[in-house]
Design goal:
It is built from 10 helices and 10 strands. It is of the alpha/beta class and 297 residues long. It has an 8-stranded parallel sheet with strand order 2-1-3-4-5-6-7-9. A two-stranded antiparallel sheet has the order 8-10. Helix 9 crosses helix 10. The chain is globular and about 45 Å long. Bound molecules: iron/sulfur cluster. Iron/sulfur cluster binds next to loops.
């Protein structure tokens, strides 16, 4: 077996689809989140930082020019920060339209919460699919509704199921985001979450380790000794479980978190992407494992 092919990675998928390297451009569309503005909750998920993540390019900037010639010719307009379907349809349309102006953009990726997916939003996303590859990233983190309450996620897991069904109906690809090492969770919760997502028709998966960033509720718990992050070895073990138990048809978009260096409190290993990726690859090779090895429907 080709050791580089032990799981389906996003870069290869994009290369096959577009015939060349494709890069993501992270865009801050200026959205907020119903779990922050009081609509369904306040304060946000306990691990969520005040600025979200991403490179904070606004949708109306020329988002491609600085990198186009040096690194790639094709790009994904990736709305990453907070909930990128949480606004009136007209506002969403104008933000997406602005980001797609540049001819080198070949795909539209939108990260959001399942409770911000409805028929109107999906119809809008579908309207771009003739010209662009469109996919939606849905945060799930865990299928355990007790953990969901504890982390203040603000919706139950059946809301995720409903959102996936709408997206499936319109044939928009779904990338699910899960987190390993959430407070009070064990490997059994990871197993249950994998079993849960395997009941859904998803096309992509992001696996993150839980990390602590400054000025969050999780940071308070960490400082009070009430939360201990996973060790790198524990994360590698859990991520390997996930990879080997999901369908071979799923594209793995990410197997490491992307903690902002200036805000990260713990664990320090989270800054070393290579340790994480190489550690998982090494384990897959040593144990002769691959994506979907133990997948059961
Ligand atoms: S849903 Fe996302 S943006 Fe909203 S509070 Fe949770 S992590 Fe932050």
């Amino acid at each position: 077996m080709d050791n580089n092919k032990r799981y389906n990675n996003l870069n290869d998928f994009l290369k096959n689809k577009f015939g060349e390297r494709v890069l993501k451009i992270c865009i801050d569309g200026g959205f907020t989140c119903p779990n922050r503005d009081g609509t369904c909750g306040a304060g946000g998920c306990i691990f969520c930082g005040e600025r979200g993540s991403g490179e904070h390019l606004s949708a109306d900037q020329n988002i491609v020019a600085p990198r186009a010639t040096q690194e790639a010719n094709k790009f994904i307009a990736y709305f990453q920060n907070f909930s990128n379907t949480y606004a009136d349809i007209e506002i969403l349309k104008s933000k997406y339209d602005e980001a797609l102006q540049t001819p080198q953009i070949v795909a539209l990726a939108v990260a959001t919460r399942p409770d911000c997916i409805n028929e109107d939003v999906v119809k809008l996303l579908k309207s771009y699919s003739d010209k662009y590859y469109v996919y939606v990233e849905l945060g799930l983190q865990t299928s355990n509704d007790e953990t969901a309450k504890f982390i203040n996620r603000g919706y139950t897991s059946d809301v995720f199921t409903k959102a996936v069904k709408i997206l499936n109906r319109y044939e928009i690809d779904v990338v699910t985001h899960i987190m390993v090492g959430l407070p009070n969770e064990t490997i059994d919760d990871v197993k249950n979450t994998v079993e849960f997502i395997n009941k859904h028709n998803i096309q992509g998966l992001k696996i993150h380790s839980t990390y602590v960033i400054k000025n969050t509720k999780l940071c308070e718990l960490y400082e009070q000794g009430k939360y201990t992050p996973l060790t790198l070895e524990e994360y590698i073990e859990s991520a390997t479980y996930v990879i080997t138990h999901i369908s071979q048809d799923v594209i793995i978009h990410r197997i490491s978190g992307d903690a902002p260096r200036d805000l990260l409190v713990a664990p320090e290993w989270n800054l070393h992407k290579k340790w994480i990726i190489n550690g998982i690859t090494k384990k897959l090779i040593e144990d002769d494992l691959w994506q979907g090895r133990f997948f059961r429907t």
